[in-house]
Design brief:
mainly beta, 3 helices, five-stranded mixed beta sheet
């Protein structure tokens, strides 16, 4: 029996997308994502990253990850968009976290962890879904650097949802922007440009003939 989502569950999913869905979390999420363990002080257990709470805010500026409006979810429909009964699947940003480390030259190294969740709608079927997600550093709402990723999220047969994670660990904030920058994660559907139909120009010979006077007139 194929796993599907009930009407109540679908409403909850859509509400999650409309309200942003993703939540910035601290140490526990990092320990899960990066394989750490031990106590909750962010310093133990084999992980190579420390939880954000282990950093002194006086030493390094490390803002929460934000998801811009409209960037928390993507949806696919079997037909016209907007009919929730024909929703095939939806992908949402479910959890976020980050780590910031001050470098010797005054710049800041930023790592971002992202967890994505794919969920089947009433018209969906299990399979493998790709989510385009971009991690950006912004300063004064202008991009400093961006890194795009394509994340594969499997939904096995007999289930109605699946999860996947991605880690961006190569973001560097210049020293002159190390205070007051923002970290943004955006989920966006890939858009294919629609070709524009163009009329072929008439051949020169045909055009000349159409302009020549007709004999006998």
């Amino acid at each position: 029996m194929r796993g599907t989502i009930t009407t109540a569950r679908l409403a909850a999913i859509l509400g999650l997308a409309l309200t942003g869905g993703a939540q910035a979390e601290s140490g526990g999420f990092f320990k899960n994502m990066f394989g750490g363990g031990g106590s909750g002080d962010g310093g133990g257990g084999g992980g190579n990253l420390l939880a954000p709470k282990a950093f002194d805010p006086d030493d390094v500026y490390c803002p929460n990850v934000v998801v811009p409006e409209g960037g928390a979810a993507i949806q696919a429909f079997a037909g016209a968009a907007g009919d929730n009964t024909r929703l095939r699947h939806q992908i949402v940003v479910s959890r976020l976290s980050r780590e910031c480390r001050a470098l010797g030259d005054g710049s800041v190294s930023v790592r971002v962890g992202i967890e994505l969740r794919a969920m089947l709608g009433p018209a969906g079927a299990p399979g493998r879904f790709e989510a385009p997600v971009t991690v950006s550093i912004l300063y004064g709402e202008k991009p400093v650097m961006s890194r795009p990723h394509r994340v594969a999220i499997p939904i096995p047969a007999g289930t109605a949802q699946g999860e996947a994670s991605v880690i961006e660990n190569d973001l560097v904030v210049p020293a002159d922007k190390a205070m007051g920058y923002d970290i943004a994660v955006t989920l966006s559907a890939r858009k294919t440009a629609k070709p524009v139909a163009r009329r072929k120009p008439a051949p020169a010979a045909d055009a000349a003939q159409s302009e020549a006077p007709v004999p006998g007139q």
